[in-house]
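Holo model, guanosine-5'-triphosphate. Inputs:
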Amino acid sequence: MTDTRRADPEEFFPEPGRLVPRTDPELLAVTDPVTVPTQHGSFAVRAWGFADGSEHLSATALGPDGTPVLGSDEAPYVRLHSECLTGDVFGSRRCDCGPQLQEGLRIIARHGGTLVYLRQHEGRGIGLVNKLRAYALQDAGLDTLDANLELGLPADARDYRQAARILEGLGITTLHLVTNNPAKAEALEQQGLTVRTLEPDVIEPVPENARYLATKRDRMRHRILLQPPAGT
Ligand SMILES: Nc1nc2c(ncn2[C@@H]2O[C@H](COP(=O)(O)OP(=O)(O)OP(=O)(O)O)[C@@H](O)[C@H]2O)c(=O)[nH]1
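Output:
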C-alpha cells in the first residue's frame, strides 16, 4: 500500500473535533480521508489495512460544508456491509446486496454516520470461489444456508473484530446499526460496542431473490420486513 501511514500505538489520527489513539497492533495502516462524491452525497473515505492482509473501507457522511455529519445523540448510524462482488458491482438480482448497499449509503448520508465495507466478507466469509460453488448447489435445489453446509462450510463465517477496530478507530463506541441481521449487532456487542438500535435496511424484493430473502427471514433470524412474493 502506498500513501498510508503506519499505525503506531503512540500515534494519533484526527477526526474533526477529536483525536483518537491507535492502540491495535493488528491495524497496520489507515489512509487520510479523501472525499468521494456519490449520488447520495459526499463521503470521507479511508482505507484500513490489517496484519492478516485484510483491507477494508470506511465511508463517513459529509455535510454540505464538507465536515462529517454526526448523529444528534452522539450515536451515529453505522452500516457494516459485507462484500458481495456479484451483487454490489454486477447488480446481481440473486441477492439483496446491491440495493442494500445503496440504501445503506442513502440512510447514512441522511442521518450522518459511517458505512464500513468489509472486503474479506465475500459470501458470508466463505470467499468468492465457495460462494459460486454454493450458487451452483442452490441452482440444484438447496437454499442459501444448506448450500454452505453441503460444502462443509459454516452457514456464516464472518468475523466482525476488524470492523469493531475500525469503528473504535473512528471514535465510534455507541451506534445505531443499519441492518436486518441481529447477528451483526451481537457481534459488535461482543467486541464491547453499544448498539443502541437496529435500523432496517429495506429493499424491494424481486422474484430472483425471493427464496434467498425467505431463507434469511425463516432460517437466519433476519428481520426482513417485506413479504417475499407468494409461491416462491
Ligand atoms: N454463501 C453465500 N453468501 C451469499 C449469498 N448471497 C449473498 N451472499 C453474501 O452474503 C453477504 C451479505 O452481506 P450483508 O448484506 O452485509 O449482510 P446480511 O447478513 O445480509 O445482513 P444485512 O445487514 O441485513 O444486509 C455478502 O457477503 C454476500 O456476498 C449466498 O447465496 N451464499
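The two ends are 46 Å apart (CA to CA). Residues 1-19 have pLDDT under 50 and may be disordered.
Archived with the compound record.
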